[in-house]
Amino acid sequence: MLTLQSNFSLKNYNTFGIDATARFGVEVHNLADLQTLLRSEEYQEMPKLILGGGSNVLFTKDVDGLVILMRIDGIDVVRESDTHYWVQAGAGVNWHQFVMYCVENKYAGLENLSLIPGTVGAAPMQNIGAYGVEIEQVFDSLTALHVESGELRQFNHEECRFGYRESVFKHDLKGQYIIASVTFRLAKQPTFHISYGAIQDTLAEMGVSAGDITIRDVSDAVIRIRRSKLPDPADIGNAGSFFKNPEIPTVQYQQLKLAYPAIPGYVVSETTTKVPAGWLIEQAGWKGYRDGDAGVHTKQALVLVNYGGANGHDLLSLATRIQTSVFDKFGITINPEVNVI
């Protein structure tokens, strides 16, 4: 049963806590209701915005259209081989809860992505990643509905055209499809990714020896690290990492290394190096900065925060000033990971 509300407040549906309003809002709990909604003549021509956890969006204005709150649930093992499980989850499933379900059942591959806010449906759209793992490494396929026709379509790995925090759904097919479910190919025997960030040190602090590591241990270590560095949106408004880590020519990185010997970098290819945006922002003097109720987190410069009364323009203005400052200092352009509306 679909229940549409007019003048729908979005304040409780975005982790920045921005007080924006949508012309209409509706929760969708199953595929049939979503198809009915998309085929409705009353709403067919209306602009639509899909919200899962609202953890990767910054509202700078009201939404003159229909906001669809994705609540399609369910987790199922749809296939199994000697080496892998294929696990399908509804687009509205909470991402961290899904990861915990997989960890509990010893389905390996998602443990490095523990405690990332949001929903399953947003994961492939953004190609979410953390601590050396990205969704595309374990992605199998997804089911999506065409917004105009309501018809179902399956997308395989190649068709999603994954990139760093990118997919075809952010570019060529932006706004054309709504993801309904995602299937992941997860291993029975784990391959541990523990060289990125502080995972190894945290495992040692936890008393876990190299030969005894489990996916639960890796998940626990990641959760411990994230909680020590990142603010809980329930306590202070934020959307996690606001900027992507820029990838620059290795020649440029080597030149910067001469001027800034401490600058970290991770090899992406023979010609490209990734530089942590948080380090650049901190070195440019923004860590802990506050202007009214818009600020930069005191422990992680990559996170912009709303102390309570900031609006979207306040946060976007701060983000723009940070971008200009980083470019002026390092000659590097940092781009938002958060979707600005």
TrEMBL record:
This is UDP-N-acetylenolpyruvoylglucosamine reductase. Signal peptide: none annotated. Its cofactor is FAD. Pathway: Cell wall biogenesis; peptidoglycan biosynthesis. Residues 16-189 form the FAD-binding PCMH-type domain. It comes from Arsenicibacter rosenii. Its EC number is 1.3.1.98. The gene is murB. The keyword Transferase does not apply. The active site is at R165, S241 (proton donor), E337. Cell wall formation. SUPFAM superfamilies: FAD-binding/transporter-associated domain-like, Uridine diphospho-N-Acetylenolpyruvylglucosamine reductase, MurB, C-terminal domain. Belongs to the MurB family. Keywords: Cell cycle, Cell division, Cell shape, Cell wall biogenesis/degradation, Cytoplasm, FAD, Flavoprotein, NADP, Oxidoreductase, Peptidoglycan synthesis.
